[in-house]
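Tokens in:
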């Protein structure tokens, strides 16, 4: 159960990072 929650947390963090990165690249390019 804790492992599932941890993977969900990691996935949401990765999604947030990818969103920020794409926003920054759209802003710069």
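Residues out:
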């Amino acid at each position: 159960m804790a492992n599932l929650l941890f993977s969900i947390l990691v996935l949401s963090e990765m999604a947030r990072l990818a969103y920020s990165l794409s926003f920054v690249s759209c802003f710069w390019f």
